[in-house]
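User: Hey, quick favor. My workstation is busy. Could you predict this chain's structure for me?
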Amino acid sequence: MKRRSKTVTKTAARPARPESRSLAKGLLVLETLRRSSFGLPLRELSSAIGLGKASTLRVVRTLQASGYLSRDANDNYSLAQEWPAAGSREGARRIQQIAGPHLARLAAQFGETASLACLFDDMVRVVDVVESTHHIRMSNYRGRVLQPYASSLGKAIAAFQTPEKVQALLDTYGIYSLTPATLTDVRAIQRDLAGVRERGFAYDSEETVPGGQCLGAPIRDASGAVVAAISVSMPKARYSKHVAEALPDVLKKTAEEISAALAAKQ
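Assistant: No problem, here it is.
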């Protein structure tokens, strides 16, 4: 009598499902915005994560209320907290702690918005802001990714990097016109950055915002590498002759003081 051989059929393993669909979508929103150099509107986020607008809105509102997302005046969402490598994050936090009192003094002295930005891998990002008390002012916000070819903070950092690093910064952000004054020709950008190195500070004369004027100066670490920058920005109507004459020297001196304090801590 022949025995029948048993055929064992293995059931294909099913992919693990997230325990919380909302959590999974929230993490997908964060990852999508992390990969984006700019903020994204709700419709693009909705399309990117494969969720309806109403459901996406609930997710982003939760993340915004928890401090993970910010929304600008154009209703674009971006990360309110950066997710760089731990070393970069710790370095930026150390610079922020040292620069904070200097930033406050700058804002008080000129009555205008003072900002601090740091270099993160292949992008320049704002890490601290002291806003002007004027009703009409040039605002900034933490987490903002800056143009290395147009903003004074971006230029003050980019001008002192290697050509390869500058190219990486430009590749990350892209080059496009923000205002009629924005430089988009690569050779013109290179000449502008050379001028920053020569002067020791950078101008943004309506290059990112019509009617805006901003000056930025580089901050160096103990090795002499430029890792951050500070700026003072204002409406061009308040950029008087007195401010134009006084601000560059004050800004450079403040950046040097921060650099010296940073070097002493390392």
